[in-house]
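notes to self, project folder thing:

trying the whole complex as one job this time. last attempt i did each chain seperately and stitching them together was a nightmare. two parts in total, labels are on each line so i dont mix them up again. if this works i'll redo the older ones the same way
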Amino acid sequence: MELLANLGLGLSEALTLANVAYCLGGVFLGTAIGVLPGLGPVATISMLLPLTFGLEPLTSLIMLAGIYYGAQYGGSTTAILVNLPGEASSVVTALDGYQMARKGHAGKALATAAIGSFIAGTIATLLIALFAPPLAALALQFGPAEYFALMVLGLVASVVLAHGSLLHAIGMIVIGLILGLVGTDVNSGVSRFTFDSPHLSDGIDFVALAMGMFGVAEIIRNLEDSETRTIMVSKVSGLMPTREDWKRMAGPILRGTGLGSLLGVLPGGGALLASFAAYAIEKKISKNSSEFGKGAIEGVAAPESANNAGAQTSFIPMLTLGIPSNAVMALMVGAMIVQGIQPGPTVITSQPGLFWGLIASMWIGNVFLVILNLPLIGIWVRMITVPYHLLYPAILVFCAIGVYSVDNDAFGILMMVVFGLFGYLASKVGAEPAPMLLGFILGPMMEQYMRRALLLSQGDFTVFVSRPLSLTLLVFAAACLIIVLLPALRNKREEAFQ
Amino acid sequence: MKYLLQNPRDLWAGLFYVLFGSLIVWLGSDYGAGTARQMGPGYFPRAMGAILIVIGLCAMVRCVQRTGAALERLALRKAGIILGSLLLFAILLEPAGLVPSLMLLIVTAAFASPQFNWKTALLLASALTLFSVVVFVFGLGMPMSLFGSLSVA
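result (full assembly):
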């Protein structure tokens, strides 16, 4: 019954006044900003990251996690009310959710989303509690070669499961890896690629990079489309689902949770893939499949549960192995490093309070989501209608001040501008920014592991394929690549992400 | 030549990868590459740079093989305004302090939108600046001077 003891520890850590307050604050801010047009979870988290640096490690992680699923829920809210998904994983929710809203069932759709997310979150939290310790224990047996192979697998898989051109995704990863190396090399003390600038001796500030690529670049893109969208928001009333609705919801929620939990652990998967898959599967097996696309409640319950479960379980690789599986987790890793915590399998054993506290707080955050959001619908609705031309200068202000506050150095703003331009140009060419962030965070780590592995093997490269675990991981990575490159499956993949 | 132009996205991207990769390989030669057994500081970066060059070449080869989507139009004016406003902020923040820099940032950035009008922009700038000062400087205690060296009598 170690599980109960651990959860107990976690709750005691998470239920301090400060942590509860910051959890609530995170969920609230996350939802508020997630609701705003043009700001997804990654941009939201990057913007609010600097605020968390002054907090205690556990508190800052709790707040960031709260922001994450708050922003997800905010995105679902806009998807349902306005057919404008706040972020990618809400696209599917919009399909049926918006139709429900048009029929006057907006309240029910929102309630379904909240309930589904809550149940999914609860179950997912339990799954994390169950599976994380054994996984971490397994990972402790990894040597540097295995870690290197795992990171390669993580990067490759994240590309395979994501949309966009494979070649450009790999290109962006490599660019990210290189940029991650800028600064003083830990091993030799040599300053690399710093052009003798003292600002760069600690490397490129990842907050500046993230805000530039995800915040500033996004703003420029949004401004290109210069028509004003008049946003028609449907009236929201009648929140509670009927008994009939509950019966219809139950299956999709459970299936969505299961699917989401599984897919969330995969690199690159997380919430997005989970919601698409859950919707597709639910549509196939549902008795009411003809209603899908016209306002089927299952069409909201399944993807919402899946994407929340996926979001939570995507913490698992990050917390146990130290490997981020998507851009949001990469930001979390960055935040942990800033707080002085090296993510990896030792976190569970050396910082049990942190680990279990974070997990417990995820559940608490889910509670807040449900309690908070249903009454506050009115506020969210009003926020959706904020015109973008008033919003984006505010975003720029927060980004600029945020980046500056990291080091009290205006150089960070300059970096943000550079990456803003780069992110914008990259998007024009069809390259996604998320792989670059992953590469940036993993770059220095990969180099370390490779170096150590080669040191131990006396320079023998076959160490990566002679050790069985490492070989298995690399084979998986190769298999992923091959799967993607096979023409038949390539078309399926492109279809899936239309 | 005509072949190269039928896939502009891949062409530009490929070119960038090749150039950036080459730059890294070249810069990396200053840092000892060491051997596989003892990786020097230049080893990993140059390897990555080399991989990037290969990727760039693949992209450029792909240009010849198939047509791709055209480059979308670049909104250079809007990009320039946004990025320029941030640069102005960065330059002015320390000498002039938070308040003037923020006002300038917001008003300049607002230019990029077709919905710009002076009254709204100035109102927005004032409101946001006030909010930022209250929340960031007084609330969160960030060490930013409000008027910089302008406040020195």
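what i see at first glance: The mean pLDDT of chain A is 83.
need to look closer tmrw
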